[in-house]
Amino acid sequence: MNLFVWTDALATGNAFFDEEHQALVQLVNAALESIACQRGAADLDLCLQMLQRYAREHFSQEEREMQQVAEHNSAGHRAAHFTLLEQLREVHEDLASGQGCDPMALYRFLTWWVKDHIRDWDQALASALAAQLQSAAGPT
User: Fold this and answer.
1) Alpha-carbon distance 139 to 115, whole Å?
2) CATH number (domain holding residue 55)
3) Structure confidence by residue, pLDDT tens digits, 26-46
4) What's the predicted TM-score (pTM) here?
C-alpha cells in the first residue's frame, strides 16, 4: 500500500539522492500503512525507528556533501534534519510511554516534511553540487 507516492517532482537530478529519497518514501509508507491498518503502537514505533535510523544515515551523507558547496545554506539544512529526527524521537518516546500519538498529525508531518524537505533543501543542494562538478570539469 503506497499512501505517499514518489513523483518526478521530488527528483533532484542526483541519482544517489533520488535513490535514497525513494527509500525514505518507502519507509514513510511503511509507517503510514501501520497507521492506516491500525497495527498498533509497537508496529508503528518499529516503522518509525527504521525510518529514523535510515534518515540519520542519509542526513549524514547529505551533510558531508554540503561541506563541498560553499553557497548552500548548510545551517538551515542541518536544522531541518535535526527537526525531523527530534520529532521522530518525541513520537518514539510518546509511544514507548503509552501516550500514543495523533495518527493524522503524524501522517501529515511525515508526508509534508519529506516533500517540503526535498523541494526546499535537497533539490537546491543537488543543483549546487551539479554546478560545482560542471565548473570543476571546465568548459565543454
Assistant:
1) 34
2) 1.20.120.50
3) 999 999 999 999 999 899 999
4) 0.88
